[in-house]
Write a structure and sequence with these properties.
410 residues; binds magnesium ion; globular; 16% strand; alpha/beta; 15 strands; binds D-arabinonic acid; TIM Barrel; Enolase-like, domain 1
């Protein structure tokens, strides 16, 4: 007997002060439902509207087993497509349908994807220091906690330091000086290699804010530290520069957390200009497109390193891990541990209460439970205790500025 979609809705919560969006799909089968991640933290109400006003009327009454067809139709039915709002909305639906399929099969998602390639998922987390010394201490702490891969940053994205003062009347923003940032980061990695030798795999996130020619030079200078990867060295608008970066250095390159459209990654992958694809799964539309991306990358020797930031629900983190554990070309998984990141006011207990079954990290590995589907549930009553904020942020790391006040797109 066919099982149909009976209801679709969004559940928003911010247990750690970061807006999270979950989609819940209920079916005609009593007690059978699925959940998915649709988190676009900075525009959550736009995603809610897309799900509840535009996708829901299309989905009610559809057979839950038609995931591919529903994905294709929902992607095309607005004619204009591939933006972060609509992709996140579709991702929430897509993941929820995969969750339902897993529950109907009585299998965890990774079984539907072909089974395990490894028993747990190696991950890295962030050592974010206010200074070089602070960052080195945090790396040491993470190493003691079993992490073998660490992403190290000093002073926030772009380093947040300047030699020259902004002009009078300069607007607020996250000021930084690209030259100061590059020199400071080189110092940090000199110190890290001095202190830890080859015992750790090190990553660094440029966070897109360099001028292209500086990015070429920086990737070359970082080569001596034998990074696991250098992340998002340029914004998505400048992917045309990767050919030049590639020809100048063997520093492994990871790219893509801001990508939405397959045309943004196609050339980079088929011309082998990056080593790790780092898309945010809900930003590309969920599991259905991610599985195609994995296969494409596998054919060209590119490995996966899905975006795993704080602005992702534990449902999204679990989906990352299901794909990771079952992909032959898995590279590494980002995990947002609360211990050494910038987000000091994190609330992991509340997160666990709202999302029972969320993946666990032990000694640098992510472990999934063996429940059918995604394996993570949502406690709506607990979620209700942490409402989202609709405040429009006008000062943050998302608004970087050069010393003279010029805005830079991250
Ligand atoms: O790679 C990362 O974890 C960062 O680039 C974060 O994704 C960003 O600050 C928004 O979540
Ligand atoms: Mg990043």
């Amino acid at each position: 007997m066919s099982v149909m979609i009976r209801d679709v809705r969004t559940i928003c919560c911010a247990p750690e002060g970061i807006n999270l969006v979950t989609v819940k799909i209920e079916t005609t089968e009593p007690g059978l439902y699925g959940i998915g991640c649709a988190t676009f933290a900075h525009r959550h109400l736009a995603v809610v509207t897309a799900v509840e006003e535009y996708l829901k009327p299309f989905l009610i009454g559809k057979d839950v087993s038609y995931i591919e067809d529903i994905w294709q139709t929902a992607m095309g039915m607005s004619y204009w497509r591939n933006g972060p709002v609509l992709n996140n909305a579709l991702s929430g639906v897509d993941m929820a349908l995969w969750d339902i399929k897993g529950k109907m099969a009585g299998m965890p998602l990774y079984q539907l994807f072909g089974g395990k390639c490894r028993e747990a998922v190696p991950c890295y987390t962030h050592a974010e220091g206010n200074s070089v010394e602070d960052a080195v201490e945090k790396v040491a702490y993470l190493k003691e906690n079993g992490y073998r891969y660490v992403r190290a940053q000093a002073g926030g994205y772009g380093g947040n330091e300047m030699i020259h003062q902004p002009p009078e009347g300069a607007l607020s923003g996250a000021y930084y000086d690209p030259k100061v940032y590059m020199r400071k980061t080189i110092k940090l990695f000199e110190k890290l290699r001095d202190t830890f030798g080859d015992e750790l795999e090190l990553c660094h996130d440029v966070h897109e804010r360099l001028a292209p020619v500086d990015a070429v030079g920086f990737a070359k200078q970082m080569e001596q530290f034998q990074l696991f990867f250098l992340e998002d060295i340029l914004p998505p608008e400048q992917v045309g520069w990767f050919e030049r970066i590639r020809s100048q250095t063997v520093t492994p390159l990871a790219m893509g957390e801001l990508f939405n459209n397959p045309n943004e990654w196609m050339d980079l992958i088929k011309n082998r200009r990056i080593d790790y694809i780092r898309v945010h799964l809900s930003q590309i539309g969920g599991i259905t497109p991610a599985r195609k991306l994995i296969a494409l990358c596998d054919a060209f020797g590119v490995r996966t390193a899905w975006h795993g930031p704080v602005d992702l629900t534990p449902v999204g983190h679990a989906v990352n891990a299901h794909l990771d554990i079952s992909s032959p070309n898995f590279g590494i998984q980002e995990w947002s541990d609360s211990i050494c990141g910038f987000f000091a006011d994190r609330n992991p207990e509340a997160l666990e209460e709202i999302f029972p079954g969320m993946p666990k990290v032990k000694q640098g590995y992510i472990y999934l439970n063996d429940k059918p589907g995604i394996g993570v549930d949502i406690n709506e009553e607990a979620a209700g205790k942490f409402p989202c904020s609709s405040e429009v942020v006008t000062w943050s790391w998302m608004l970087p500025k050069l010393p003279d006040g010029t805005s830079v797109r991250p």
